[in-house]
């Protein structure tokens, strides 16, 4: 009797990458390395981001009978300082209020990052946290982003940042 190997072992898993640029306006990108294209480049609030993650977890990954691996690249903002010395200078009331607002936004972004990361880990989704640095391809203009990725649609700065988190991964 000849044993025929299972086809399941021969099927290579497809990967989908989701890039998330955490913020009040959260950048959200879905990249398919097989055809080197974006399925989505959007900007959402926190709860819409969670709903979109749910969609991709349930509809994409599981409907493909676990032949699709979902990997999330999450911008790690926990190392960001609340304010930077060069951002706003002066001792005026207006400057103080501006520094406080920036500090609140950074704190909110850190909390959103922690919640999204914890949510994904509870769902057993692979998470790769990436700390932005001077060499990160973030804050690209629409023209630069389109030249690098060959993407032709409209984007926001947040969706471009999310897109660059996952672009080119295999």
The SS-based structural class is: alpha/beta
Question: Tell me, what's the shape?
Answer: globular
Question: What's the helix count?
Answer: 4
Q: What is the N-to-C succession of helices and strands?
A: EEEHEHEHH
How are strands sequenced across the largest beta sheet? 3-2-1-4-5
**CATH level 1 class label:** Alpha Beta
**Whole-number radius of gyration?**
19 Å
Helix content: 25-40%
- Overall mean pLDDT stands at 81
**What is the third-level CATH name, the topology?**
Nucleotidyltransferase, domain 5
Count of the domains: 1
Annotation, overall tally of beta strands: 5
Distance between the termini: 39 Å
Estimate what percentage of residues fall within beta strands: 15-25%
Q: Describe the sheet with the most strands.
A: 5 strands, mixed
- The CATH architecture term is 2-Layer Sandwich
Low-confidence stretches: 1-11, 83-87
Structure description:
There is one protein chain. The protein has a single domain, classed as Nucleotidyltransferase, domain 5, CATH 3.30.420. The chain is 38% helix and 21% strand. The protein is built from four helices and five strands; from the N terminus they run E-E-E-H-E-H-E-H-H. The protein has helices at 46-62, 93-122, 142-149, 157-166, and strands at 14-21, 26-32, 37-44, 68-75, 126-130. A five-stranded mixed β-sheet has the order 3-2-1-4-5. Strand 4, helix 2 and strand 5 form a beta-alpha-beta unit. The longest helix has 30 residues, at 93-122.
